[in-house]
Structure formats: structure tokens, C-alpha cells
Automatic annotation (TrEMBL):
Heme b binds at residue 205. Ca(2+) 2 binds at residues 206, 223, 225, 230. Its EC number is 1.11.1.-. This is Peroxidase. The record marks 70 as: Transition state stabilizer. It comes from Trametes pubescens (White-rot fungus). Residues 1-21 form the signal peptide. Binds 1 heme b (iron(II)-protoporphyrin IX) group per subunit. Residues 291-325 form the Fungal ligninase C-terminal domain. The keyword Disulfide bond applies. One of its GO terms (molecular function) is peroxidase activity. Disulfide bonds join 29-42, 41-314, 61-147. One of its GO terms (biological process) is cellular response to oxidative stress. SUPFAM superfamilies: Heme-dependent peroxidases (SSF48113).
Amino acid sequence: MAFRTLLSILSIVAAFQGASAALTRRVACPDGVNTATNAACCQLFAVRDDLQQNLFHGGLCTAEAHESLRLTFHDAIAISPALESQGIFGGGGADGSIAIFSDIETAFHPNIGLDEIVELQKPFIARHNLSVADFIQFAGAIGASNCAGAPQLAAFVGRVDATQPAPDGLVPEPFHTPDQIFARLADASQGEFDEILTVWLLVAHTVAAANDVDPTVPGSPFDSTPEVWDTQFFVEVLLNGTTFPGTGNNQGEVASPIAGELRLQSDFAIARDNRSACEWQSFVDNQPKAQAMFQFVFHDLSIFGQDINSLVDCTEVVRIPTPIERFRHRLTGEDRSRSRLRSRA
């Protein structure tokens, strides 16, 4: 789908949703405080408030928020129609298997470190009447909403939980090549996620960090503003690397331009691959695009393996994040001299 066409569709949908919201009859929730367009969404207000108060430290863009967003991807991406076509179980996508079968799936190499957020979330899952699959995606959307400049991410209820663990080998690794990552995302999405949409998905790294790429420096961010959903990540990955935050020479890591920042080998490679470099550069100083494009891909990623017609859209429960006042981080003249900007149409 052409980029302009997609933006036009998104604009029309947004306008339609705005007009519909004004006309849609709302129902009063049992809590006596909130209303919703669908009664099925009422339960999410209590889940949201519990998460904000007791996991996200009163609604902050913390490590728990970052890891909750990361968990949404690691659960959802574990699906392979290619394996299914061979008569092999290919995983269920956004089905909660990473938490339901955490003893198995958090031991997979790309999921190392996620056992911590899974264990933190389990008490919340136990005290709320949500499927595990719904909870994981909802917690990620709420966590992201605490980061200034983030988009309002989709929230659905009605997903079916996993009955068996996903197979190993379906989550991309930092040391994978662009070819491997593009192929994996195309398979999981049945061809929807191409090289362009892969870049859109990587917008999430604006508030991400690595805990286990270099275990000597856990929590090393991928850009200099991990608490803000901005486009600085796209700038800094283009700069020439000069340093490592810890020991260096770790699998999946390459040199970073900024002290304390960790750069993934996969981000470095995708930013410079001829199939994705132009799209990568298009995010530099483009905050509206960083919001809209991730909002688009998260919507689709969050329902991998599920029947959209069986789900209820409860996005209204996710608060609209605080906007950032201005686009503070630009590629300066000095930065340009340190980067390798090559975009081929």
C-alpha cells in the first residue's frame, strides 16, 4: 500500500472515529465512575488503575513500562504460518503463551530477561478477569501511554489464550541479519510486514533498553532519551559508533556514539540496508510519523493469531499520552558529519 494512501486512510478513519464517538451511546460501568462504548471494556478501568499505581509507579515511563511493551512483541511475534503449512505447530501469536508457559518460553535465548516482567505481571493477571493474552497487550499499551510523546495504542479484549507453548526460534535476535528479520516478520504477518513496516515497528526502541546483551550494564538504553517517545533513536543509530557502555564485543552489539548507550547490531544494519535506509531516515525529526506508524503496526501486531471479528475495541481506556512540547532533538551539522546518510529511492 502506498504511504500517502495509507496516511489518507488513517486520516479518514480517525475522522470517522471522532464523529462516531460523538454519536455512540455509552454505557455506565459498574464502578459508578466510568462509562464505555461497550460494557466489555468496563473491567479494563480497574486493570489500568492497578497497573498504573502498582506496576508503573504512579504512571511513569519506567523500566517496567518499557519491558511490558517489549513483552507484547515477544508474545505476538511467535507465530509462523510457514511452519503450519508444513504440518508443524507454529505458535499462536498474541495468545499469552510467553506467560502461560513462562518456564519454557522465557528460557528461549531471545526471551532471556523477560522472566522478570512476566513474574511481576502474574499477580495482576491473577486478580483480574482478563485472558492472559489480553492482559499482556493491554499492559504494554498502558506502559507506553506513560511515555511523553507516545501514541495512544490499541487495546482489545476477547483474545483466546494459548493451550501450548510457542516453538523456539520465532523471535528475532539482535545478531540476526536484515534478511533474517525481514523474513521472520513477513512470515509472522502473512506478508503484511515488509521492510518498511519493520522500520515502523522499531520505533518502539525509542523507549527501550537492553538488559542481557551486555549483562555488565543492564538497562542500557538504545538512545539518549529513553523516557521520551521521540525520534532521537533514529538520529543516533545513524551516527558513527565510538564506544561501548560496558565490556564491548558482545554478540548482537556494535559500537555506540554516546557514552552509556547500547546499540544493537540489528538496528545498525537495518538503518543502513538499501531496502530500509530511506524509511529509517524519514523518521528523523518527524514526531507525528513516529506516533502514527507505530500506532498502526502495534494494532496489527497485537492481534496476530486472533480473530479480529471476535474482539472488542477498548482503546478508549488507554489514556492519550502527554505530548512533547517540541521536537527537541535534531540532526545537527556536526551530527551529519558523523553519520552515514545514504538514501536511495
